[in-house]
Amino acid sequence: MMKLSGERTGLFLLIFWVSLVMYSCSSGEDDDPIDEHKNLEVRSTRPFYHLTPPTGWMNDPNGMVFFKGEYHIFYQHNPDDIVWGPMHWRHAISSDLFHWKDQGIKIEPDEIGTIFSGSAVVDWQNTSGFQTGDEEVLVAMFTHAGNLQVQSLAYSNDRGRTWEKYDNNPVLSKVGDFRDPKVFFYSPEQKWIQVIAAGDRIQIYSSLNMVDWVFESDFGPGIGYTNGVWECPDLFPLKSEDGTEKWIMIVSVGGTSEYSGVNGGSATQYFVGDFDGNKFTHENDEILWADYGIDNYAGITWSDIPNEDGRRIFIGWMNNWHYAGLIPATEWRGAMTVPRQLGLKKNSDNEYFMTFEPVEELLGVAGKNETYNEAVQEINIEDNEIIQSGSFKIKTQINLSNNSFFELKIYNSREEVLLKYDKNQAVFSIDRSFSGNTHVHNLFVKTIKCDYAIKDNILPLEILLDQSSIEVFVNNGEKVMTALIFPRYEFNDLKITGSGGSELIQGLELVSIKKTVDN
């Protein structure tokens, strides 16, 4: 998670207060009278099918582990306010990644410090010695943040319902930035591996019992994107569609400049390479991003998903540190992305890259469906019930053989979100500058751009909108763009147009998504 101390504290607080002043000076209602728009419904910002805290503040996902039919997720949580503060681990459980049941706060601050980010695993062989009954023990490793950042353990012998901290915490200490441990079991050598962020690099440690750790190697510094502190690492194997197995290192970058990252502020990069049990080596020359939008940070993957399932599932915090404490909120603030299944492909240069697609469980929470099968140049859907719900999916295929660009607009009479692809420039973009409450920060009126070269003039798209967010999956997740939006009124309409050719739209499916999180 992002550390707010030392020099970075001053920089963050300066950005925060300057932004707050700008927001308070400019966040009033628009000058145009609203009486002429009485038919528009003022709407809530709380998502229907994305995980949010019942109350209080949420940031990084933590402790994600699958055990006996249940997905566990913890997250960074301030129960007493809707801004970043003393961090706790709050817990939720789901059997399908969408219907989440809040379990309350499980790991609280103590005399060592507050509870920063970390991970959880199933200790199948009881290497830690924490198991007390017949059922396997869950073990969490997290950063204790006090005068120093140190690494500590907690464990559960009742399927994650209650957690006990290890008596001899901390188990790993050093000087300087040192946080966000991600732990996994490395079967070839029957040992635990920990990757942990240490300022401008990722450090790798090993252990036989999760208590006694030995330093193995550094990854970095000076690799990939470095304009910001490295945080929230993950390391795991992933098989490509050609059967080749590669190792993936995920690293979030807490950039505080609106020019940092891929589109401003904080972002998450990844590296493709190999791991030999001691050292990770990467093979990609270009910087690869987990999301080419602006609001996806600190994402990691679930541990212990069964081999028969075979998936690697990722989730991120749907926000940006540059304005995280300023977005519209009442009793809660923060949300997670939709869980995403990871894949691995080769590009035209024979280099591997990851794909990110919504997990198949999304189909299980689908509601009303409308299908448009004809190939047409333009679609204009007005006063649509599915769009008015604020929580829906659009799936379409765009044919740019006879068009140089296309635009997809979701809108009402005052506000809009505009997606555009320019074939000549090979750029996909999201424009949220007229999407509603854009006074949050300057980045809300900056067009979010992503380079993408279309293949065979065909562009498959899947778009998820959920009250205050939009997630765009291009060509089966080859590129993903996530952005927060805060329309003041319900969207009603959808329009897709091109540059004037023919048969631009090769069918369209519009699907409502049911409310799954009961807050």
TrEMBL record:
Pfam families: Glyco_hydro_32C (PF08244), Glyco_hydro_32N (PF00251)
Single Gene Ontology BP annotation: sucrose catabolic process
GO cellular component, one term: cytoplasm
Alphabetic keyword roster: Glycosidase, Hydrolase
Listed GO MF terms: sucrose alpha-glucosidase activity
Residue span, Glycosyl hydrolase family 32 N-terminal domain: 50-348
Family statement: Belongs to the glycosyl hydrolase 32 family.
PANTHER family named in the record: EXOINULINASE INUD (AFU_ORTHOLOGUE AFUA_5G00480)
Protein's recorded name: Glycoside hydrolase family 32 protein
Source organism (scientific name): Mariniphaga sediminis
